[in-house]
Amino acid sequence: MNLINKTDNPNKLSVKEKIKFLFRDSIFFGGLRAVSMLFPLLTIPLLTRYFSVENYGLYDSLLVLGSFISSFLVFGQDSAVARWFYQVEELKQKQKIVSESLLIQLVFTILIIPTFLIFREELADFYLQKSSYSLHVLLILVYSVLLLLNNFTINILKWTYDRKRYAIIAILKPSFILLSLLLVIVSSGDLVDFLIYNNIYYYVY
Description:
The chain is 80% helix and 0% strand. It is mainly alpha-helical.
């Protein structure tokens, strides 16, 4: 993992410096995280204005499904890595912890996602009450995998204190969501197009 290259070590700081370190990083990472989470709320007026009530409800349900599947695939590995990452000093040990965590998540993905893909019509019928939404389920399954990888990258940047790259992703993420919506509006597309644009964004990252 070449992203792990310059982890700061707060343990070597004095108590006063640790407090300053905590305050600074809480403002930086917490602030950007808050902006990243708040921005989608600001797009709700656009979404509700452009999409019908049914499509907006469908979109919201799909996001919940995608986030649930992504969290299930992670299986708490992000918390486990955060717990053990700073317990070791050597770079190789940190790389091993991160790599093994990613491997576990990929194994879960390989075992679970193909099953969902095979039975996506049944999943659409069970969760959305319409088997005709199987394409939407397919796109949200792709989204859940890309979201897993995206969150993994963000966590690495956070754990290694790579503030510059973290800030770039935190700012661009909501911007691309808005761009996806604008592209759909301009092209007179539908919800499927919006989901595709979002997946392209996550794939690029």
